[in-house]
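[audit] Reproducing an earlier prediction to check determinism. Same input, same settings, fresh worker. If the C-alpha cells differ from the archived copy the diff job will pick it up downstream; this log only records the rerun itself.
[audit] input (314 residues):
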Amino acid sequence: MPQQFNPVKLFPGSGTVDLAAKIAKAYGRELGDVVISRFSDGEFQPSFNESVRGCDAFLIQSTNQPYDNLMELLLLTDAAKRASAHYITVVVPYFGMARQDRKDKPRVAIGAKLIANLITAAGANRIMTMDLHAAQIQGFFDIPVDHLDASVIFVPYIKSLKLPNLTIASPDMGGSYRARTFAKFFNAEVVICDKRRKRANEIESMSIIGDVKDRDIVLIDDICDTAGTLAKAADLIMQNGASSVRAVCTHPVLSGKAYDTVENSVLTELIVTDTIPLKQDSSKIRVLSTAELFAKAIANVNEHGSISDLFRVD
C-alpha cells in the first residue's frame, strides 16, 4: 500500500503574513484561517477558525521585535496542541534572541535557551528555522531542529553578478567561520574585519586582516541590525583599494537609523532575505525570498524526506 501522510495545514502569525502567504503558494495550498482577538489593554488571543485535529500543523512566525510576535507564536502552539493537532512544527524564519546564546558577562540571562524552553513547553514537536546566529543553539532544544541554510539562496545570486575578482569578507572575527564556509562555493579568498566594541551597537576601532586591493568584496553576516558594522567595514575596505563592496545578510533587523546608514554607505547593495519584513523601501536593499526553500522543507518534513538534500548549491 502507498504510504499515507497526515493532512498539512499552514497557519501564519500576524508578524509574518506576507512570507507565510508566499510559502503557502510555493507549497500549493491556501493558508489556514487564524484570528487574533484583541482586548483594549493590548492583550490578545489567537484562535483557529478551522479544525486542526489529526493534521500536521505548521505555524509560521518570526520572533523579531515586538515581543508580541513570540507570545503570539507560543499561544498558537498551545492552541494547536489543545485542538488535537497530530504534529506541530513551528516555522521560525528569524529566531529572535539568538545573540543571547551564552553568559558573556556575569549575571545575565541566556535568552536563546529560555526561548527554546518556552517553545517546547508550549507543545511544539519540531522547529524549523534559518541561519541561527550561533549554530549550537540547536542543542538548546530537546525536539528536532531543521536548521536551513540561506547560502542556497545567496550563492546563485552572487554567481549571477559575475564579479571578476570576488573575495569574501567577514565584518568581525566571530563571523569568520561563516565567511569561510561561504567562500568554498566560489573557491575565493577570505578577509576579516577585526573590530573592537565600546558597547553593544557601538564600534571603537576596526582593522582589516587580508588584502582587498582591486577586489570585489562581498561581506557575509547573518543579522543586519543597526548596519553600523557593515557601513564601517565597507568604508575601510574601499579605503584600502577595493573595486566594490556588497553585503549579504540573512535577517534584515534594520533598527534605529539603519536604513539611512545603508543608503549613505559605500555599499553597492545590501542583499537580504524576507525572514523579517522591511519597514521601508531602500534603493540599496535587494530582497531574495526564502519561500521556496521553506516550502520544500515543509514538504520533506511531512513526507519524511531528507532536509539535508535542500542544502545543495548548483
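[audit] rerun output stored. Observation attached for the diff report: The two ends are 35 Å apart (CA to CA).
[audit] end
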